[in-house]
Amino acid sequence: MVKKKTCVFISGYGSNLKNLISYSRDNSFPINISLVISNKKEAHGLIYAKKYKIPYIFIDTKFKNYENKIFFNLKKYKISFICLAGYMKIISKNLIKNYQRKIINIHPSLLPKFKGLDTFSRMLNNREKKAGCTVHYVNEKLDSGSIILQKNFEIEKNDNEKILKYKTQKLEYRAFPEAIVKIFRKN
Ligand code: GAR
């Protein structure tokens, strides 16, 4: 099997990146993590790129031409698939156009509920019964592309934001790889 050369975009801790790297080391997993892009110089997740000798770059989105740097590197590393794993920046229309249905994102809620930020506090305020995560294609509208896979759990009485995040991320570590397998099984 020829693995898809994949770039993972991160902004922070990188636990989903770490998880995807670990899956991708299996020969039967459809993608190989060939590049990591971070919009934060100090993103903790970059240690996983370093540890596993995966090329990584920092993109300073303050600069007007930052997108050229992204395109240049996606081309350089022959990237054909993109995973957003805690990337807290809107992806440009141009990038979406060039990678139609080739960019996926993981989001910590059961979309279409709770798009955007602060998902857990909003869920608690709303007295939601269920929480979970969604893997979806990225389109021009925030957290609105078609859904590939969701996993959910029941919110318990004593759950607070921290606990919801912990439970959600545990599900994310299964949902993201499963969604990737599902995508490439179809093709
Ligand atoms: C993940 O829980 C992901 O769902 C969320 O950021 C976290 C990143 O954690 N993404 C979003 O909120 C996107 N809107 P990680 O850096 O440890 O993988």
- What is the CATH topology of the largest domain? Rossmann fold
Sequence of secondary-structure elements: EHEHEHEHEHEEH
* Count of beta strands: 7
Q: Name the CATH superfamily classification of the largest domain.
A: Formyl transferase, N-terminal domain
Residue-averaged pLDDT: 96
Helix content: 25-40%
Enumerate how many helices there are, as a single number: 6
For the largest beta sheet, what order do the strands appear in spatially? 3-2-1-4-5-6-7
Largest beta-sheet characterization: 7 strands, mixed
The CATH architecture of the largest domain comes to: 3-Layer(aba) Sandwich
- Overall form: globular
The overall number of domains is 2
What share of the residues does DSSP label as strand, in percent?
Answer: 15-25%
What compounds are bound to the protein?
glycinamide ribonucleotide
How many whole angstroms does the radius of gyration measure? Answer: 16 Å
- Intertermini distance: 13 Å
Q: Can you identify the CATH class of the largest domain? A: Alpha Beta
Q: Helix- and strand-based class?
A: alpha/beta
